[in-house]
Amino acid sequence: MRVLPLLPLFALLSLPVDAHALTQPSGVVIPTQPGCDSGKPTGLLATFACVCTTPGVCNIGDVCPSTTSCDDGKKSTCESTMFHVWNDNTCIPSKFSGLDPVAEASTTPETFRPTCALTFSIVTRAKALFQDTFGWYNVTGSKPDPSDLHPMFGCTDGAGKTVVLDLAKEPGYKGGDIGFFLLTPESHAGDKKCAGGDCCPSTARLAKGEGYVYYSERKYNPDAAGTSSYIHLLTYASKLSKTKFYFAWEDLFSGGDNGFTDLVTSVDGVQCSGGGVRCDTGKKGACAFGVTQCSAGAVSCTPVFAAKTETCDGVDEDCNGLVDDGAVCPTAGDICHDGKCVPPCGRGEFKCGPGTTCDKTSGLCVDPTCVDVKCGAGEICRAGKCGAPCGGVICPKGQTCISDACVDLCAGVKCGAPARCAATASASRGVLRARACRARAAPSATRRPTTASTRAARPPAPAGPTARPASASTPARARRAPRGRRARRASASSPERSPTPESPSTARRATPPRGVTPARMRAATS
Question: Which H or E run contains 204?
């Protein structure tokens, strides 16, 4: 609830309203348009224009001194920016950019999943009469009990107050999702005043029937009435942080001024329920890797990697389904093969191995039956016929078949103890780079069991200082076919790998010449 001075007729501007804007049961679009107080704009848009990376700075432009010299309002990196045009209202800018309080307002998500320690901050209390209390509760599938309301900010905490909460250390945290609540001291007499004249609420007063509590799970609110329920909370996903949300509250029972600035808080370190999970974007190549994120209350799969120009590294970086297509090698005359720039066969002392011959068109050592055979995009030639790469190929443990070659994705990656290299790949999607050093989890007697609601698969991490960009080139010893017991297991499941008198096993154990993969050598001798 906000108390504003009397305003002139021009103080409220009709900014564009999104067709899908939220409304109260009365039909009023929420939040309401900006107002003017003491020569400065008010409302949720002005609030977000003052949430910036530079403390004490607001992205609110000055009035235009002329038709050609209007202030763009940008003074820092902020959630929103308000700026004037010529002959504009002197108090309320008619233009804005960034986070749109009307178009991006949502009543969802209603529940959230903590990912680490949570940082709570009070953004503003505006001029609310009630000194509301804000906190969290465990999501259990039923209306929270007053004993499960855990206040974060008391009635005397003002704008700028910040609290860090580590739920892993909270005895009241039951694991899983959490919700948020607003506790008010409003009298039940319907006079929109503080109960008993005391405007500071508490859970103890609530237990005695004084005040109201409103939840992020809207169905539990005291004035809930199905689809006609009064909206008390608007949620916003931050544009400055992927794990930050804003909670804008309206605190009067069954209605107030609909400004939603009675208490605006933020929390950093949470995902919406269903967010932060590894997903498949449906795109090709590196763009296939994604992570679920929340936007305007909806969960979507956002790519981790953006498409870029191809380089010779075994990765489909332009996300067109073809690995290293069009990749240019730094040395003139070299060709890109299996993620590495190599000289073409026939040059100098580089000769092809037994059972293969140089295909001068491609510069590769191939099966003699594959010379001058042109295959379609994404196919390779094997025994004179074109087919999908890695078809029927079984690689030794720890290796992955990429472009018909058995590759150790962790080759060359050094991890400090006790971390280990974790690698994944998808030959069919043209993806190779998906490896990183990850710490081994240490056993702990106090560790809380992981549940479906708290589990979040880590998205594939880009290569860091200890994880260089992946390459399909593998040392010769890592490419050899398996020997001994491992070779017998492989031969039992793949006729292609079984030694026969007509195809000596020694040919498969030999170190392949540059440009020749084990799979192609097998094809040449089968």
Answer: helix 203-207
